[in-house]
What we know:
Number of strands: 14
CATH architecture: 4-Layer Sandwich
Strand order of the largest sheet: 12-3-4-13-14
Distance between the termini: 26 Å
Number of helices: 5
Strand content: 25-35%
Oligomer: single chain
Largest sheet: 5 strands, antiparallel
Number of domains: 1
CATH topology: Glutamine Phosphoribosylpyrophosphate, subunit 1, domain 1
Amino acid sequence: xxxxxxxxxxxxxxxxxxxxxxxxxxxxxxxxxxxxxxxxxxxxxxxxxxxxxxxxxxxxxxxxxxxxxxxxxxxxxxxxxxxxxxxxxxxxxxxxxxxxxxxxxxxxxxxxxxxxxxxxxxxxxxxxxxxxxxxxxxxxxxxxxxxxxxxxxxxxxxxxxxxxxxxxxxxxxxxxxxxxxxxxxxxxxxxxxxxxxxxxxxxxxxxxxxxxxxxxxxxxxxxxxxxxxxxxx
Length: 233
């Protein structure tokens, strides 16, 4: 995850310093997450390494989380902050399903996350998330940062390993490709980032959301993808 040693106090007198350093010098560490919009749904993928500065705090952290049968999120940032946002979205999606007797649209779910993060911007949750899923309008993915900015994307990567992931995605992703072809590409982007970014690593998770709901690929499928994309370089 991104390693922050505290929260950003914008209300304090000296609002140009963070953790004893100039605000402009704050450094983000850790995590690679990927989201792809496909012709028949969306694909989300993450690595599993959780870092605290230079310390690997956990090797199998869960950064890809199911919200509802049609919705999922990837998280990066402070673990507790990101999990709080996830729990809040789960509450509202469950409430929406009970009241409306249908799942929450993806855009509405992203707006809930945006509202939560924007409302706490003076004492922000340090979290950068992808909200992805399918609804009556098809598949869609939104990237929401810790100030609540929301952007809809066709292909997106976040975290310190994102430059490597984008190198793979921008050369091989084709708009309109199926989820069956897209999820190996998402895995390849994450695996590539684990080899070039020290705060990304250990393992990866990949999920597909389509008309049949949420499906996370099995360990056997992951082993095949690792064997396919592992090289001696």
